[in-house]
Structures are given as C-alpha cells and as structure tokens.
C-alpha cells in the first residue's frame, strides 16, 4: 500500500475538550504504532482532510515521523477556510500543518456551500488512497460513519482494506504506556 487515508472522530466525539487532554497522547501513540507498521511495509503517503481531532493529530504524528521515516503528508480539505469556525488553538494547529505538509489543496476551491462537499471529500479520499485507517467504535460511529460507509462501498468493488483503531486498541496502548513507566511497577 502506497497511499493511506486516515480519519476518525472529532475531539468532542471523544469527550476531549482541551488541547492538553492526556487522552490525546494515547490516541497519537495508537495512530503512530499503526502508521509505522504501514511505513515499514512501504507506505509513502498519508492523506487527511485536516478535520479537527484524529486527522489533525495524525498530521502531527506524520510530521514527527518524517524525522525518522520517508513518509509524506497530503492535506485535502473539502473546501477552503474549513477551520474558520474552529477554536483558535485548532486553527493554529491546522495552519501549521498546512505549512509543513508535502502537499495541500482543497477539494472545492470555495468556502462551505453544503454537505455535498463532505460527501465528495470522502469519495475523493477513498478514490485516491489504497486503503484507510479509521479510529472507530462501530457501536458509536459518530461522524466517522460517513467515511466508513464510503470505504465499505469501495471495498466491495476493489481491493480496498479498511483498518481500524478500536477502543480496545486504545486500552492496549494505555496499558503499554503505563507499563513503560518505572513507577508503574513500584
């Protein structure tokens, strides 16, 4: 797989409301673990639309991984100025990622016009990638369900693997990180 699309929940869907929430560390660790595995198997590009939450955190993970691995980041928002209504710290993170990305371009060269832009973005991301990674709890899919449905349609017609990070995977990462702390064992 050369190109991987990554998406998942927005912060509020994970009960994350502060930029320094400790849960973010565990989510990023889970994303990093999965992506390193893909990079070691030949992954070249990671595509995100730059939405708040999983996608921005993935972008930050990729920027960090670029110091060690040859991987590129592409950001393809559904429309221009998608971040205009976001909290200021999220807007700043987004703008920094756009500067550091290897490529970025909105799918629609206009501001928000309607929900069709999100649907087109999901289809575009699936069409341009060889597989996807979604942080998803199928019992509570949240906004990720729309991308997941598009990915499932693609997997019915072609070889399009759908990889997930589940709540159980996150629990495992939390345990791993806690067990790395020497104080954990005292």
UniProtKB/TrEMBL annotation:
Pfam families: YpsA (PF06908). It comes from the Bacteria. SUPFAM superfamilies: MCP/YpsA-like. Belongs to the UPF0398 family. This is UPF0398 protein SAMN05216244_0370. It comes from Sediminibacillus halophilus.
